[in-house]
Amino acid sequence: MSSNKTFTMIKPGAVRNKHIGHILSKIEEAGFTIAAIKTTQMSLQVAAEFYAVHKDKPFFQELISFMSSGPIIAMVLLKDNAVEDFRKLIGATDPDKAEEGTIRKLFATSKTANAIHGSDSDENAEKESAFFFARQEWLRSSEVVL
Ligand code: UDP
Ligand code: MG
């Protein structure tokens, strides 16, 4: 059974380009409830920890340098089938391959600066939510909205 939760970050480029409002509208219009939200900035070390699964990839240094280059908006989102539906809403990793109307197609400026993160599994949604938020920060709001 798929869970009803996913984790996302609006990445530093989209924050710098003032796309926060537009991206939040798209997320809510697509039926997601924002259960927890905050602005924060990752250090290089924290970004390396978050993306540890990619540490041997050729793009790793560029990725963690970009992800720690400015504020991000971290969120826990709720919806039925949240992980899969959110991946559809954001589009392919490479914005050149992302479908029209997806968040990455609209707001990404490169494969690295691709506007937004979305968890790729229920297990990672849980881990990534816990990376940024204390459990009660999203559980309390989940009780209110569900
Ligand atoms: N990335 C990159 N170059 C690549 C592949 C990925 O810079 O060739 C970056 C991109 O920002 C992506 C992140 O690394 O969002 C994590 O990669 P992943 O394959 O997990 O893509 P995602 O799940 O974010 O679509
Ligand atoms: Mg991924």
Describe the protein in words.
It is a single chain. This protein is α+β, with helices and mostly antiparallel strands and 146 residues long. It is 45% helix and 16% strand. The chain has eight helices and four strands. It has helices at residues 12-16, 20-29, 44-50, 60-67, 82-90, 103-107, 122-132, 135-145, and strands at 5-10, 33-40, 72-78, 116-118. Strands 2-3-1-4 form a four-stranded antiparallel beta sheet. Helix 3 crosses helix 4 (60-67).
List the SSEs and their pairings.
Layout: E1 5-10, H1 12-16, H2 20-29, E2 33-40, H3 44-50, H4 60-67, E3 72-78, H5 82-90, H6 103-107, E4 116-118, H7 122-132, H8 135-145
Antiparallel strand pairs: 1-3, 1-4, 2-3
Helix pairs in contact: 3-4
The structure holds uridine-5'-diphosphate and magnesium ion (MG).
Residues 54, 59, 63, 93, 111-112, 114, 117, 120 line the site of uridine-5'-diphosphate.
